[in-house]
Amino acid sequence: MYHVPVLLQESIEALCVKKNGVYLDCTLGGGSHTKAILDLGGKVIGIDRDEDAIKGCTLRFGEYKDRIKIFHSNFKNADEILKEENIKLDGAIMDLGISSHQIDTPERGMSFRFDAPLDMRMDKRQMLTAEMVVNEYTEEKLLKILYEYGEERFAKRIAFNIVKTREKRPIRTTFELAEIVRNSVPVKTPFPERRTFQAIRIEVNNELRGLDKAIKDIFSNLKSGARLCIISFHSLEDRIVKQTFNLMSTACICDKTLPVCVCGHKAEGRVFKKIKPTKEEIERNSRSSSATLRIIEKF
Ligand SMILES: C[S@@+](CC[C@H](N)C(=O)[O-])C[C@H]1O[C@@H](n2cnc3c(N)ncnc32)[C@H](O)[C@@H]1O
User: Fold this and answer.
1) Is the pTM of this model over 0.90?
2) Residue 30 alpha carbon, nearest atom of ligand 1
3) How far is it, in rounded angstroms, from Cα 36 to Cα 29?
């Protein structure tokens, strides 16, 4: 299976799919969300930055070609795509992060479980790879990434040891990097490599910068009453989603000390209570345990 979907039923229910309504799937992956929307009679504009997802979904949805249009692009370009297609949306879904296919394909270099070149790119057309980050970034920049994107408390030791190792020879593979991390973490902890790999992957794919703008852009293309559903997989992503939703659903954003409102900011939507996977889903798919679904409806 290309991807084991997470919070699928909950997110599709939240979208309230209408027959012939147009829905944006910002993160096609294996197409589980798209398939559910098509099955309910909706139309889909599908985006993914990964060529494998595009090829897979183009094949999978061949029989629906009058109801789906697929774009190999970054969802940060969604506004442009929608304006060009002259489309207003009845709903949108973003299922952030990486697919099971990406993490389980050894040669993509995203997992410390397989020995492979340090790549980690979701979109092969881009230049920056994990090997470049690991071998070319300054120690300060590595430290910042590990600290901010990995929330790694041993970031300093890991960055130092990466630089010390690469002075002798370039670090080319996932196993080489994983070994440096394991040797840098002084306490026994399950999967000490996880945070470093997450941090470098986030940097390579520029996963967080501009996410707030993409959310606002997509929201601005919704019709009144339409919903944007976002599934995130770690606290850094979820914080951006939460803060952006809060901003879009808050009327006044003036400094609290001001006696009257001067900002003129208007609430544009209402936010629903966040949804977490059920115990059963986590038992079935442990990767779902960190997922959070957030929903905003446009006024
Ligand atoms: C968790 S998977 C989506 C799975 C999909 N919903 C399914 O059920 O099969 C995330 C997908 O989003 C894509 N992706 C991540 N960031 C993206 C971005 N900024 N623009 C476009 N696609 C992105 C990845 O390439 C990956 O295929």
Assistant:
1) yes
2) 9
3) 13
